[in-house]
Design a protein that fits this description.
225 residues
Length: 225
């Protein structure tokens, strides 16, 4: 089993280590920690999309999927191994970046949230949970597109585009709710403004995680080679 897990990690190795390295370098090389913080988060999420597409995309490109599925291992176990390695790798990147910036960039980040008048719960709902959903959606969307498109490069751009499209559609639906259904007071009240990112980004990304994961799992379980 250990050998299979190491084999699953192999196509993820270089984006994984690069995502970790840029966190350390960003703290060491600059004092503009708040601005670099957002830039590094964006870069890490893009690398996570690449990891999500590489896991299955490499199987198609190396023509090893048939051999993978022919192993005397239940298909659900193969799925759990692949997604477990992906989720573990992305989780390490996310937790490490949060820990590094909490330790080394804490004053700048706390000042940002203080000026935005975020309390502890608002910081959790308006930042950490949406950020976690962004990382998770990268691996779910990447896996989904890789299984359908069967090419890492194409699936990478498709996963980025589809996630961006989901966010645009969500903003459009919110606009309709504001203009037609009279939800202005609900969405733009004082409390709603504190949780604006959770409503506008965290919720659609969470729903996209569920949908893309379910579709990807269904595709893999029914795949024929």
């Amino acid at each position: 089993m250990i050998r299979r897990l190491l084999k699953e990690f192999a196509p993820l190795a270089w984006p994984f280590f690069f995502a970790i390295i840029i966190v350390q370098l960003s703290v060491i090389l600059t004092d503009e920690t708040l601005y670099v913080f957002w830039f590094v988060l964006g870069g890490q999420i893009i690398l996570c999309y690449l990891m999500g597409t590489a896991s299955f995309g490499s199987e198609f490109e190396n023509n090893t999927l048939e051999r993978l599925l022919s192993q005397p291992v239940p298909r659900i176990a193969l799925w759990r191994e692949k997604m477990g390695v992906l989720a573990g790798s992305v989780g390490v990147i996310f937790l490490l970046s949060m820990a590094v910036f909490y330790l080394y960039a804490n004053p700048a980040i706390l000042d940002f949230f203080h000026r935005a008048r975020f309390n502890g719960l608002a910081v959790l709902l308006n930042f950490f949970i949406p950020a976690a959903c962004a990382y998770l959606s990268s691996l779910c969307a990447g896996t989904l597109m890789a299984l359908y498109l069967k090419k890492t490069h194409t699936a990478f751009w498709a996963s980025l585009t589809s996630t961006a499209l989901i966010l645009v559609i969500w903003q459009f639906l919110l606009s309709i709710c504001l203009s037609i259904l009279g939800m202005k007071m609900l969405l733009y009240g004082e409390k709603a403004q504190e949780y604006g990112i959770a409503i506008q980004a965290g919720l659609p990304l969470f729903l996209w995680c569920i949908v893309s994961y379910s579709l990807a799992r269904r595709k893999f379980m029914r795949m024929e080679v």
